[in-house]
Amino acid sequence: MRPFEQIVAEYGPLVLRVCRAVVGPADAEDAWSETFLSALKAYPGLPEDARVEAWLVTIAHRKAIDVARANSRRPVAVADVPEPGPAEARAEGDLWAGDLWDALKSLPQRQRSAVAYHYLVGLPYKEIAAITGGTTDAARRAAADGIKSLRSSYPSRTDERAE
Amino acid sequence: MTTNASDQGDGHLFSALPVEDPATQARLHERLVADAEREGLLDVAYRTLVTPVGTLLLAATDQGLVRVAYDSPDHGGHDAALAELADRVSPRVLEAPDRLAQVVEQIEEYFEGRRTRFELALDLRLSKGFRREVITHLSGIAYGRTESYAQVAAAAGSPRAVRAVGTACATNPLPVVIPCHRVVRSDGSAGGYAGGAAAKNALLALETAA
Fold first, then answer.
1. C-beta of residue B95 within 8 angstroms of C-beta of residue B46
2. Whole-angstrom Cα distance, residue B190 to residue A126?
3. For residue B91, what is the domain's CATH number?
4. I need a labelling partner for A70 at 20 to 30 A (CA). Which of A27, A144, B119, B169 fits?
C-alpha cells in the first residue's frame, strides 16, 4: 500500500478543485480537510484494487454536504469569514472565486455535483450515480441540466471555445 | 481515467479554477497533519535532513524514532524506505517534521561534534530476533571506538554468527543513531555500510577527530 503522503500529493489538488466547485470558496478548505482526515482514517482498509480517485470523490461528496449544511446554519456576518493569510498566499486560490462560483452556486446542489464530477474529475455517470444516489440516467440529466443553465449564466466561458 | 469533458466542448468550464495552488495546498497539508496528530491517526511521521553524509530520511511512530535511511539508489532510496514503513508499520504515513524536532537537533549536534551519544526514544519494531539482539548490543559501543564483526558476534552470544552480524548491521533500521558504523572488519578496514563506504569512513573520522 502506498504511503498516504503520496495520495495527498497526487490527488490533493484535484480534490481541492472539486471542493471549490461544489461548496465554493468559503467552505472549500473545510471540506478538503474533512475529506482527507476521513480518508486517512479509512485508508488502511482500502482494497488494493480500489480506484483512489472515485473513493476520494465519494468521501468529498459526503463531507461537502456536511460542511455546507453546518456552515449554512452559521449566522452570516462579515466577522465570520476566516481571517485570510498573507495576501500573496491566498491570492492565487481566490482568483477564480468570482463569476464561476456565482454561476455554480445558483445551480441545485445535485446538478452542481454532477457537473463537477463529470466535467472536472471525468467520472462516468454510472459512478456519479453511485456517489450521489439515484440512477445513471438521473445523473446524466442533472449534469446536462446544469451545463445548460451554466451556458446562460456563465456564457463567456462556456461558449468562448465551444467550436 | 482522463477527463471526457472535451467531447462536449465544456472542458474549459472550470479553467478559472487553478489546477495547482501550492500555497493553499501547503496550508491544507499542515492542517491535515495537525488534525491527524490530534486524532491519533499519524502513525508514521517523517522528514528529510541534509547531513554531511547525505540526505537522511527520518521517521517516527508515537513510540519513537523508527527509521533512519540513506538515499542510496542501490536500495531504492527514500521511496523504498517509505514504502517499507507503509507495509510494515502503517500506510498512515505523512510528512510531518514537528515530531522529528528532537531527533534533528541531536543529529545536527552529532555532526557538529557536540554530541557523543543519542538520548532518543527508539522504536525497534523493524528489527526482529537475532538482528535485534545485535542492534541492541551496538548501542553499547562507545563513541570513537570500534568492534570487529567477530567481537560483536561473541558479545551477542553466537561467536560463529559473524556473517549474521554483518547482515544485522546492513539491515540496521536506525543507522547513525544506532552505531553500526562502529563495527569494522578484523583487519581494521571499514567493511560494508548501508550508506556506502564513504559515509562509514566519514562517520569514523568524525568520531576520531572529536
1. yes
2. 62
3. 3.30.160
4. A144
Active site residues of B: 180
Q: Where are the beta strands (DSSP E) in chain B?
A: 44-51, 54-60, 65-69, 93-95, 147-148, 183-184
Cell numbers placing B30: 499542515
**Residue B187 reports pLDDT greater than 70:** yes
CB A39 within 8 A of CB A59: yes
Over residues A83-104, the mean pLDDT reads 62
Closest CB to B23: pick one of A44, A93, A116.
A93
Structural domain containing residue B90 = 23-111
CB contact under 8 A, A122 and B10: no
pLDDT at B50 over 90: yes
Q: Are A1 and B11 inside 8 Å of each other by CB? A: no
Is the Cβ–Cβ distance between B173 and B68 less than 8 Å? Answer: yes
Q: Which domains does chain A have, with CATH numbers?
A: 4-155 (1.20.140)
Residue A134: pLDDT above 90?
yes
Tell which A residues from 44 to 103 touch B, by Cβ distance under 8 Å: 44, 51, 53, 85, 88-90, 92-93, 95-96, 98-100
Alpha carbon distance A57, A128 (integer Å)? 9
**Cα–Cα nearest to B165, from B200, B137, B125:** B137
Q: How many CA atoms lie within 13 A of A78 on its CB side?
A: 0
Query: Per the domain annotation, does B63 fall within a domain?
Result: yes
How far apart CA B38 and CA B194 sit, in angstroms, is: 35
Rounded average pLDDT over B92-102: 98
Chain B 67-86, CB below 8 Å of chain A: which residues? Answer: 82-83, 85-86
Report whether pLDDT(A119) > 80: yes
B18 vs A33, A96, A150: nearest CB: A96
The residue type of A87 is A
**Predicted-complex ipTM score:** 0.91
Q: What is the pLDDT of residue A26?
A: 87
Q: Can you give the CATH number for the domain in which B164 is found? A: 1.10.10.10
| Same domain assignment for residues B35 and B106 | yes
- Alpha carbon of residue B140 to chain centroid: 20
Residue where the block lists cell 552470544: B157
